[in-house]
Amino acid sequence: MSNLVVLRRRDALREKVREWKQQGFSVGLVPTMGALHEGHLSLVAKALQETDRVVATLFINPKQFNSAADLAAYPRTEDDDAAMLKAAGAHCLYVPDGDQIYPPGFATNISVSGVSEGLCGAFRPGHFDGVATIVAKLFLQSEADKAFFGEKDFQQLQVVRRMAQDLDIAVQIFGCPTVREADGLAMSSRNRRLSAKERAMAAVLPETLFAASNAIEAGESIPAVLHAARDKILAGGFKSVEYLELRDAATLTPITDELVRPARLLVAGFLGAVRLIDNVQVTPN
Amino acid sequence: MSNLVVLRRRDALREKVREWKQQGFSVGLVPTMGALHEGHLSLVAKALQETDRVVATLFINPKQFNSAADLAAYPRTEDDDAAMLKAAGAHCLYVPDGDQIYPPGFATNISVSGVSEGLCGAFRPGHFDGVATIVAKLFLQSEADKAFFGEKDFQQLQVVRRMAQDLDIAVQIFGCPTVREADGLAMSSRNRRLSAKERAMAAVLPETLFAASNAIEAGESIPAVLHAARDKILAGGFKSVEYLELRDAATLTPITDELVRPARLLVAGFLGAVRLIDNVQVTPN
User: Fold this and answer.
1) Inter-chain contacts counted by CB atoms under 8 A, chains A and B
2) Residue-wise pLDDT tens digits, A63-84
3) Does some domain include residue B182?
4) Catalytic site residues (chains A, B) (predicted)?
5) Do residues A60 and A70 touch, judged by C-beta distance below 8 A?
6) Last residue of a domain, one of B150, B176, B202
7) Residue A90: inside a domain, yes or no?
8) How does pLDDT run across A157-183, given as a tens digit for each residue?
9) Are B120 and B193 in the same domain?
10) Taking the mean position of all CA atoms in its chain, how far away is CA A26?
11) What is the arithmetic mean of pLDDT over B66-94?
12) Beta strands of B26-166 (E only): which ranges?
């Protein structure tokens, strides 16, 4: 178990990271909004493999929420999060005070066109601007060498990759595989808001995704597979499916016809009041 | 006269700057669009005072031009610029190839609300997004410690300050006084597009600004002074005045009533086909 340093000011974080770098250590960053689960810990584990010192961040970013209700409902569990990070071997937890992220007069916005359009971007206006802006800030505040994101939020990962490349931020970005519960449900802080009954139904989402991915890989018609998959998710108890789409894995441009390059099948839907997202790889033969 | 290194690739610039930093040198950045004049050289001189190694950049950024004609008409004088920088003692000229700034698939935009609104922002849609984005990139590509901008482009200076602060870019920004011709005209690469007759008339702009500043400082009515000054500029031969406004020097919020904090009087107008801008300080008693 490591000694976890908790910092709340940007300059303290920067000083700590520069001190580590002067000692010859590489530094990894794991940005989170807290409510940690095994998915986050897998990012910490990967960061510990790839770098010498690991900083996890916890900031519930109001700019990436579309509704005040969703922001208010977001779980806040800092003490548990710190204990989990310490046990996982992280070296630092950065929990910035609000003014360290949005000082008085803050007026700057980063937007990424293309990869942020459609999918979650269509249903959560401004969400990816909020993501791109906060992540750029965390990269630049920390001066980390490498940063670790889950493929669970696949569109977010592509937005972050594009932003960091376009703005010449000297950080290497790692996308890490989604961690799943025993029944296949992708781990998410939102899962704890599911009722027991909803939780029992939720596995229809990954089951359907994996089956659809296999069917597309086997050469079945993409529109037909997507249509049937949507029906299956709704029949499985989901209230709605916001999107279920096959996209190019790198550019996120839609694929409706033929599978020639690595693709991703992405879904978002509501189970009761809880919005769940997931995605799986689809590989051409 | 120094040895001027000319670099055209981001990674070559970064390597050079990191080499300097490892040697214990601080690094100053002077971003330009070329067509250098004494105003730019004053920034280089200030940078040489404040840092050990000075990088000037030359990139004519298409994203900050509103019209293709204005972009096409912008002077391109790289050889002259390099000779002037060498004579001035700069250590490096970075002239990035286009793909070093906007690689294929580039999709990221930085916008700054507040300080970018009104004034030039009202007449040049997208201009300050282009400025904020390119300057952020140059800061992050170069990893310079300090950067130097002219007060001639006062609104730009405030946009750059806000952007760098909001995005936690570890660069210190210096605003440097406008350099003027003998008759008071602010130096600008656009001045060379004035006809001899227009050039002779141009001094009405700074003369009027300084007189108006004095009148406001002496307690005359702000609206009355601005109204008379606008008339005087038009009577002096300007085809139009886009704006003539008194603004808070830090936040650029309009001042129409009483002068209580340091302010700036800013103007833009057309003399023939050439758009000229200028600004002067207005100090409360």
Assistant:
1) 78
2) 989 889 889 988 899 999 999 9
3) no
4) 40 (proton donor)
5) no
6) B176
7) yes
8) 999 999 999 999 999 999 999 999 999
9) no
10) 23
11) 94
12) 27-32, 53-58, 92-94, 108-112, 146-150
Residues A177 and A35 sit within 8 Å (Cβ to Cβ): no
Q: Which chain B residues are closer than 8 Å to A9 by Cβ?
A: none
Residues of B within 8 A of A160 (CB-CB) are: none
Q: How far apart are CA A108 and CA B133, in angstroms?
A: 11
Give the chain B residue whose CA is nearest to the CA of A111. B109
The pLDDT tens digits for B36-78 are 999 999 999 999 999 999 999 999 999 989 889 889 988 899 9
Active site residue B40: yes
The number of angstroms, rounded, from the C-alpha of A180 to the middle of its chain's C-alpha atoms is 14
Domain identity same for A128 and A211: no
Is residue A62 a part of any domain in this protein? yes
A67 is in an annotated binding site: no
On whether both A164 and A264 belong to a single domain, the answer is no
pLDDT tens-digit series, residues A176-200 = 999 999 999 999 999 999 999 999 9
Question: By CA distance, what is B106's nearest residue in A?
Answer: A166
What does the mean pLDDT of chain B come to? Answer: 96
What residues of chain B lie within 8 A of the CB of A140, using their CB? 140, 167-170
Structure tokens at A58: 């916890």
Residue A182 lies in a domain: no
**CA A33 from chain center: how many Å?**
10
Residue A129's CATH number: 3.40.50.620
Token pair 């294929």 is found at B104
* pLDDT for the residue A73: 86
**How large is the ipTM?**
0.95
Q: Are residues B27 and B142 in the same domain?
A: yes
pLDDT band at B2 (very low <50, low <70, confident <90, very high): low
Q: Does B166 contact chain A (CB < 8 Å)?
A: yes
User: A76 is in which domain, residue-wise?
Assistant: 5-176
* Nearest in space to B57 (alpha carbons), one of B47, B69, B71, B49: B47
If one counts every other C-beta atom within 10 angstroms of the C-beta of residue A224, the result is: 11
What average pLDDT does range B234-246 have in this prediction? 98
Among residues B50, B281, B257, B16, the alpha carbon closest in space to that of B172 is found at B50
CB B74, CB B100: distance < 8 Å: no
How many other C-beta atoms are found inside a 10 Å radius of the C-beta of residue A186? Answer: 24
Position B109 pLDDT exceeds 60:
yes
Q: How far apart are the first and last CA of chain B?
A: 45
Q: A108 and A18, same structural domain?
A: yes
B199 and B257 share one domain? yes
C-alpha A161/C-alpha A250 separation (Å) is 10
B95 within 8 A of B58, measured Cβ to Cβ: yes
| Structural domains of chain B, count | 2
Whichever domain contains B269, its CATH number is: 3.30.1300.10
DSSP letter (8 states) at residue A135: H
User: What pLDDT is attached to residue A2?
Assistant: 64
Co-location of A59 and A148 in the same domain: yes
Which domain-ending residue is among A132, A153, A176?
A176
